[in-house]
Amino acid sequence: MPSLESAARFAEEQVGPALDSPQARLAVMRRLYTGPHGRERLRLPYRRAGTAFMNWQIRRGLLRPPDGPSPGSPWWRAVNERLLHDGWEALGLCVGLPGTPSAPSVAAAVEFIRAPSPRAWYRAHNAGVVAAYLEHRELAAAESRTERFFMNVVLLRVLYAHALVAAPRLALGGLGPAAPLLGDPRLGMTGIFLSISRILPDRYPLGDDVESYVAREHGFGRLLDHGVITPRLRPLYAWSARALAEPRLPELLDDGIPVYNWPARDRAPWRPEPSALVRAVRRGLPARA
Hints:
It is a single chain. This protein has helices spanning 7-15, 22-32, 40-43, 47-60, 74-94, 104-114, 118-135, 137-141, 145-166, 168-172, 179-183, 210-215, 219-229, 233-243, 276-284; strands at residues 253-254, 257-258. It has 289 residues and is mainly alpha-helical. It has 2 domains: 1-142, no CATH class; 147-289, no CATH class. It has a two-stranded antiparallel ribbon with strand order 1-2. Strand 1 and strand 2 (257-258) form a beta hairpin.
């Protein structure tokens, strides 16, 4: 391990040179799970979820450099950079480099490295995601209506995945005992929460016709969003705010409508006419306050 002035500086040295290459970003993320600390074998299986999500971002072109012929998304690039920096700063602290966590999300990443578990992984990942969302509102505002809609979809799905392993009765009601297995980031089942890749084409940016993309959502994704997650949004955001120690998180919801850079009055994409199956799921898995 090179001798550097602080763990934060170490993170900058690791992440900075990779920022203008999506594949280099991916390699930097993957190395996080094999870096020295003595628990590499325990951490390695968690790399599956991070790799799947980054591969989706790369396929869409979201992480392309800003000065290329087809620039990526400034917002997605910033969110991804935050996650990478948090992870490498935490690893630096864990191997003895000087400093204290620069943010609560870094402290959460330290906890995961020292004691890997599904709960710890989601807490570290989602603390970084939420911090980046709140930090980069201005970048998000510059994105198209469709992109901003799916920013909210991504957020509610990662919060829900965390609840599956850490608050199973909130996530699945009477089927709560099955929830931790469904949400385990070490297993392939986590791919269901990235199924927006089946809706959005592999290109960036998209236009403003949200409704056309929502209409393409496959049956399971629609059932998940509108039958299971949407009825739970209020308790989910409230629980996540406590779990992540981020009291501003419920502000991203208004009367059950996700409003991260989204006007609450624009309700139609969030309240489509429920199918008979969606109504049946809502009755069978009622949300708990």
